[in-house]
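[step 3/7] fold_predict: job queued, chain A
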Amino acid sequence: MTRDRLEIRKLRVVAPVGLLDVERASPQPLEIDIDVEVDLSEAGASDDERFMVSYAVVTERAAEIALSSHHDLLESLATEIGTATLSLSTTIEAVEVTVTKLRPPIALDIGTVGVRRRIVAP
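[step 4/7] structure written:
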């Protein structure tokens, strides 16, 4: 297993997610972090894009998934993003996705809430 990672931080989308009526009524701001575990040694040694996983493609796919339909649970959204990312390349060993609600509808003094899912290639 590699220690190399492609890291995407603070992808922000306004997406339909949540169980509460207020969450179903309008999309809410989310922040998505994605760690792609992939061996980067060939890309690093060769400087050749054929050996890399495109962070642009990963980011675009994650945003597309978040915006395309309502998810009741952050867990479901994170899983779908992770699974889709894994399918982009057979060289990806695992994907860790964190989805954070930036303004959770909780009547307490709370900053954010979120989930983190790690999906491992079969």
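[step 5/7] annotate
Strands lie at 5-15, 28-38, 92-101, 113-120.
Helices lie at 21-25, 41-46, 55-68, 74-86.
exit 0
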